[in-house]
Write a structure and sequence with these properties.
Order of helices and strands: EEEEEHHEHEHEHEE
Distance between the termini: 31 Å
Helix content: 25-40%
Number of strands: 10
Number of domains: 2
Strand order of the largest sheet: 6-7-8-10-9
Radius of gyration: 20 Å
Strand content: 25-35%
């Protein structure tokens, strides 16, 4: 999403931008039938054009998991196609094989159990806490963040997993 704050105030989805190019010092593109020209300076316009043209990062890339950086998956069954796909080929079988943890949690008890297993990973390994999105989540972002901070963790990154799940990466302070 490109958010414009100034004379032109809009939120423009990057996926909807077409014919993105730089003309002199301006970033130019069309959105629907409307042509937008933003005077940003040549360097800034070129950087934005490059960023807009780049394909979106995969969920596996956002989580930092791969065949070389395996994740110890903790907690409830996933039941989420996007997360299952991101973890395919990147699951650690034991704590010793894992570079990080991905914990799917639905309540504080599940969080506590996940943290007990995560503690067996090498010191400094991050843990992603995956939970339901939205105000109706029984154990959501606010509760998780408070519980993690009480345990000496700090949140360092957020990634949307799917329309119903989000993930927050935590590391020890």
């Amino acid at each position: 999403m490109l958010i414009l704050r100034g004379d032109l105030r809009r939120a423009i989805p990057i996926a909807g931008m077409e014919r993105v190019h730089v003309e002199g010092e301006a970033l130019c593109f069309t959105i629907g039938s409307e042509q937008i020209v933003l005077a940003l300076g040549a360097d800034v316009a070129a950087r934005w054009a490059k960023k807009i043209a780049a394909p979106p990062r995969s969920l596996a890339d956002k989580l930092g998991v791969s065949g070389e950086a395996k994740a110890l998956v903790l907690g409830d069954d996933i039941h989420d196609p996007a997360l299952e796909a991101a973890l395919e080929g990147a699951r650690a079988q034991t704590e010793a094989d894992a570079a990080l943890s991905v914990a799917i949690v639905t309540d504080e008890a599940a969080l506590g159990q996940a943290l007990q297993r995560h503690a067996r990973l090498p010191n400094g390994a991050p843990i992603w806490i995956v939970h339901r999105k939205g105000r109706n989540a029984s154990f959501g972002e606010t509760s998780i963040r408070a519980a993690m901070r009480l345990r000496g963790f700090i949140d360092t990154k957020v990634a949307s997993v799917s329309s119903r799940l989000t993930a927050i990466r935590y590391s020890r302070r």
